């Protein structure tokens, strides 16, 4: 008896893939991202401003006019928080918050990608999707999911950082996007991506390894 092979179109294959996506992974990533952004955004703002002051003192980026208008430097984290609150109010502490909320998608994409890659890998091996993997396999999926999420969402971090920098003046997120595109092109939205990945990759791999060890009870 002659066997007949059935043809599956790319559209049908993609549809089948997304039918198996567990959207609770996406919801979990979004929820965690919103919570962390609300709590940690002021600290992110301070980090950017400290970095801006260092650039200013080293004369790497800013003109003499901006040096004259910068005012006194912050003496520490508490001084920075109190000064920003006193001079700019709560809105000052959450400058760049809107693009930061777009960044919630980063955690969501990363977490969902990580989980779906594990599930697809186990399905490929014809084993239950909750089968434990080796440490090397977990590290590979963690690093890959981080690369995918970063390549998709990194531009928001550039926009947020520039809005938070007290030495740059933008009318808002759209104005920052327009100026970045006008003067730097698409490469401007990915400035600092490589150092960022070097910084976060070991951290995220460690986080996922600990996560797997605790959730698997091993």
From TrEMBL:
Entry's Gene Ontology cellular component terms: membrane
Record's bilayer topology term: Multi-pass membrane protein
Classification via InterPro entries: MCP_dom_sf, MCP_transmembrane, SLC25A32-like
Swiss-Prot/TrEMBL keywords: Membrane, Repeat, Transmembrane, Transmembrane helix, Transport
GO BP annotations listed: nucleotide transport; transmembrane transport
Cellular localisation: Membrane
Any matching Pfam family: Mito_carr
Family annotation (PROSITE patterns): SOLCAR
SUPFAM superfamilies: Mitochondrial carrier (SSF103506)
Transmembrane segments: 193-211
Family stated for the protein in its record: Belongs to the mitochondrial carrier (TC 2.A.29) family.
Protein name (Swiss-Prot/TrEMBL): Mitochondrial carrier protein
Protein source organism: Nesidiocoris tenuis
